[in-house]
């Protein structure tokens, strides 16, 4: 009799621009996860025992190898995720930069010497062991590398579980790591179903920490399961970020930056500025200027250099986005290709209630809601009227206001007169239900270490006194 597994043996990777099959990828079973953890644990011990300069050198070689394959990786991302080719090149370059930046930290990962009486006290930053990185489909390469690069640099092994829809660039990165000379089994990619391959990583006693980026719903379940084992966990979850435009702002600059602040990656961005809050005196003028900017966004073949926005990742995501935007909702709408593929036009919802689902829930598509506000305190109240707290922007020429509002908005990453959120030099993470823990920035490696304190007594032995 055929042995039927209780889960899929393969996942089909589709091209989101056409709906066509790209490749079918075998799904990792729990037994295979178990074997991978065992091999990773051995590789980690040998990796941590290498001289720091050698580990740094190998990570730099990995960075160079990625740099030499930017175009190949970018084309693969266009194929499996529908990212525009320009974005995909940036994302592959971001992996290179993250590896370089992390490599620079290997030889600087210092503990402290703390003044104490009766001896000498030092802290040692020790690697945690095997790290499970569970990544979403929206930025398959950068998000994988946010965890993988600093974790390796701090002396850990990494098991990466990519999303079901986007495993191909992750699998290629693991091959490139080997080609660059990284030890076998140190960085392994385990494609498969979330609750099977991902669940096995979360449950496995040999995995010391889970770095999860994805939906708040799954993040909560993973946190609960990690709690049973007191397993370390970092959660990078959803967002519903505000773009606050005060009437004293440079309105033309604010308008010019608005479309791609929520349309980049077809709005499938946890930092997308999907709640556009505009002060009443400039509200009408803002919409007047915004309409042509939205209508002229080039939506189409993501491999075309001129394209600004590609498709959504899947039919399921398209259905989800459609469910938030009934045809009768008033708004500004751009264009999108008809026919096969998962297309949705750029959409700005006007005259929407501040508590409507599309105004407070994460749509994760090219959809933003515009809401008017009266004054500074009203803007802060609206900005904080969400369970999320990941990112946000504010536009003003008043420096005092910029300081006050950026202190008052409860979010991990704020930007004044721009829409910047994620930079590998600076810490990134959420407030409230957008998660906890910080990635990137100067302390990225420390998140993958345990601090050990050692006290050396200097008290002479009795007979020597
Ligand atoms: P998701 O939560 O459905 O899946 C994320 C990953 O978790 C996938 O690899 C999935 O296979 C895995 N997974 C699912 N169920 C699991 C389980 N029971 N156990 C272990 N792993 C499991 O999210 P998604 O739809 O892939 O990604 C979109 C979400 O990610 C959005 O909510 C977005 O805001 C969020 N996101 C957050 C950040 C951030 O840094 N805060 C960045 C990007 C995306």
UniProtKB/TrEMBL annotation:
InterPro entries linked to this entry: Ald_DH/histidinol_DH (IPR016161), Ald_DH_C (IPR016163), Ald_DH_CS_CYS (IPR016160), Ald_DH_CS_GLU (IPR029510), Ald_DH_N (IPR016162), Aldehyde_DH_dom (IPR015590)
Listed CDD domains: ALDH (cd07078)
Family affiliation: Belongs to the aldehyde dehydrogenase family.
Organism domain of life: Bacteria
Protein name per the record: Aldehyde dehydrogenase family protein
Taxonomic path: Bacteria, Bacillati, Actinomycetota, Actinomycetes, Kitasatosporales
Active site: 236
Native species: Streptomyces albipurpureus
Aldehyde dehydrogenase domain location: 10-454
Keywords: Oxidoreductase
